[in-house]
Amino acid sequence: MSDLSRRKLIVGGLAATAGVAALGVAARLAQKYGLIPPDHGGIWGLGETLDYASQRLLTRHSLAREFSRSQISKRPLANEIAPPSDAFKRLQAGGFADWRLTVNGMVDRPASFSLAQLKSYPSRSQITEVVCEEGWSYIAEWIGVPLSHVLNLVGVQPQARYVVYFSIEPDWWESMDMADAMHPQTFLTYGMNGDELPVGNGGPLRMRLPRQLGYKSVKFITHLTVTDSMKKFGKGLGSASPEAGYAWYAGI
Amino acid sequence: MATLGSAQVPLDARAPSPASVVRPATIASRHSALVRVTHWIITLCFFALLVSGVEILISHPRFYWGETGTVLTKPLFQLPIPSSRDLVPTGYGYVLPDQNGWSRSLHFQAAWIAVLTGLLYAIFGLFTGHFRKNLLPGKAHLSWQSFSTAVASHLRFERPGEAEVSSYNVLQRLAYLFVIVVLFPLVIWSGLAMSPAFDSAFPSTVTLLGGRQSARTIHFFVSVALTLFLLVHIVMIYLAGFWSRTRAMITGRASSRMERT
Question: Residues A114-129: what's their mean pLDDT?
Fold first, then answer.
């Protein structure tokens, strides 16, 4: 009997040691392959890391579902946002002619683009669904220039890991990893359903990531920064969302 | 004899101790350690998923069928409750506190732990014969006679007999199997179908359910079914003797002596 239990104890001990070692190795590998999200700390860190790591492994190149024209929602919901700032209203009064998108950080040629310039680049469209964390969703045709096109123009440096993007409205900013930034469906969107992008849906310029929830598709984009670390931005959690209690990665 | 080792030996494997001699009742080994540990981990996860799920739900207590749905479209139905977001017209003059942030994080973290624990349980159940021995109804169970006896005794709210101290009756077996083989897989599937990134890699996850909003509605109804199962489960344990059954799921040992407490 004691032999049997001693064997149990030894086997259990070895299994526990192997388990801890495996976790250590997994953490090293995850770090190496960029599978640890910026908001991996805290009590929800385990879940956020498992969500991000597993989905990054499964979905690095996968395409969001695209729908047929007949499936476009008749009334695309323009959900409420805070009243626009004075800066936005001034640009709106001028028909957004002076709207600029500035790009800097770890790029070879920092640049500033007007809407007309962005519209002069090859235009792409996708019929994809906007999914809100509240539960509702609608389908629309989104027209814009792939973010990768703009990033290739400015020349992203090899050590880059994230693209941080800012709205003209204060404290509204997000970031995405390079897999999402270079993804063919990640658009700087200026049109919707064959028309200009309405202000209520994020016009004149909205970031669109159809593989993540709506809150990652920030409205009224004016600035992008390419970086290798999120530590210097805000509280270092990756974006404004984790600071408000939401996951940085919103593919789920 | 190593004293360290003897502490590891389960009680039922020892020679009869004075305590069990005094008790005329048999002490049977009831639940294996793996069943007990996974049972309580999944219990904790289920409560976390239920609370956080309700919190997420009240941010949009409307349900739709098909791919899309917003406050601008006609819902399949709307729960008559207030909402935690002012986007939803509820008829109530107030908006509940918004708890979506931590609720979503808790929901997914608990889901990971529940699914990984459930996988461990499923592998164990398949390879040790736990499913075959304890959950699959045997030939004797499936006769009309035994089935109607079980239904009748349940309808009379009778306390279970001695046989059920060490084994599940046919209705229990069918209920547990339904939860393990149908409801749990369906709630995981419909939950994954709501992930836009998961759908991009495995689009049939959502299309087979009839669209994103259908998946959300199915997720709701399966959660309701699981909650009803939990309520019935607790009532049954209460009728069978709450402490003896709960003790069995904690210590692994079942005493056939009827509870008097």
Answer: 97
